[in-house]
Amino acid sequence: AGANDLLDVRSDFPVLQQPMNGKRLAFLDSAASAQKPQVVIDAERACYEQYYANIHRGVYQLSQRSTQAYENVRGIVQRFLNAPDEREVVFVRGATEGVNLVAQSFVRPRLSPGDEILITEMEHHANIVPWQMIAEATGAELVVAPILDDGRLDMEAFRARVSERTKFISVVHISNTLGTVNPVEDIIAIARDKAIPVMVDGAQSAPHMPVDIQSLGADFYTFSAHKTYGPSGAGVLWGKLEHLEAMPPYQGGGDMIRTVSFEKTEYAPPPAKFEAGTPNIAGVIGLGRGLEYMMEIGRERISAHEQALLHYASDRLKTIDGLRIIGTAPGKAAVISFVLEGAHPHDVGTILDMDGVAVRVGHHCTQPLMERFGVPATVRASFGVYNDFEDVEALVSGLKRVKEFLA
Ligand code: PMP
């Protein structure tokens, strides 16, 4: 990977055009949330300016247009994931809601005391807490597969934790803290042998690599629009149709029913069954435009661009004494967590900000992982389509300044 792999799309993002503390803004926090291209902003704005109304059942023009624009996004998501059927696309608030929906509607009713849910040591809190909640409520147990020192999943240990008691497996596709890309195909092959359903937390894979849900073979996959260059408050839960048909609804309300009486309610078929209430209409439309934006560029190219930045940044960071990168798994994604000897991550982040360099500091919603590596927090630089070598240079010279400051 080299300069030829680089994209040049920074000018698509209005927010990046402003100076930050008098410097060129180096935004290195896409793992937390990505910035929005003009086309996404325009799509949401067009919805409100030209055709906004509540969706479904409206007989008037505006409602029909907004219904069509909203429903059209299911086909875009279907294409984005190569999903077999657009009825498998459920709109949610984000990955967090996607996991909670599956935990409450699909997994919880299947659990008895002594049953097990298997996750990994590198999960985001969003893929830990919902399972803990249903384990506590049912007497089931949460089992955690450990990771190796370089941030790879310990596959041997993982395999050893799969048993007759394992009722569900949920794993992160790409770690938001380490950048590790998990071998989910292998995990799913192990699960399939024992007929265990698998959920993949795609919050970090949907934005950064091509995802083909059919070759992946998962039962559920979820991601958030705000990381795929779309708005916050919108996201996708994809689930196999047979599961979605069999599952009880997650929430009750309008728009998810066929008929309601005080004696009995009949639910609408999926996906409507899982979309109670007025949804985030403009947000879903923006979600669709964000995915189209990614498909227009091409996810192979996005991935190659980010890999080029990752390799360049990793080499440049090696020139800084006392800097330790946490998470060095082969084939990792463009997320670099590190600690700097003698400097608290929060001080590093604050000093970098003075140079217009935006990084995240803290536990990144992965406290057990911080524990695993014996650090309270890390500095994390993460990359997106709009980053370039100049951003990396700003980070490196900022870190040199941090060292002078704190020496
Ligand atoms: N899983 C992972 C791996 C994530 O990085 C995130 C977001 N940081 C989530 C789940 C939760 O996503 P959201 O907050 O958008 O619901």
TrEMBL record:
One of its GO terms (molecular function) is pyridoxal phosphate binding. InterPro entries: Aminotrans_V_dom, Cys_dSase_SufS, PyrdxlP-dep_Trfase, PyrdxlP-dep_Trfase_major, PyrdxlP-dep_Trfase_small. Coiled coil: none annotated. It catalyses: (sulfur carrier)-H + L-cysteine = (sulfur carrier)-SH + L-alanine. Residues 27-395 form the Aminotransferase class V domain. GO terms for biological process: cysteine metabolic process. Its EC number is 2.8.1.7. It holds the Pfam family Aminotran_5. Keywords: Pyridoxal phosphate, Transferase. Its cofactor is pyridoxal 5'-phosphate. Belongs to the class-V pyridoxal-phosphate-dependent aminotransferase family. Csd subfamily. NCBIfam families: sufS. PANTHER family: CYSTEINE DESULFURASE, CYSTEINE DESULFURASE 1, CHLOROPLASTIC. This is cysteine desulfurase.
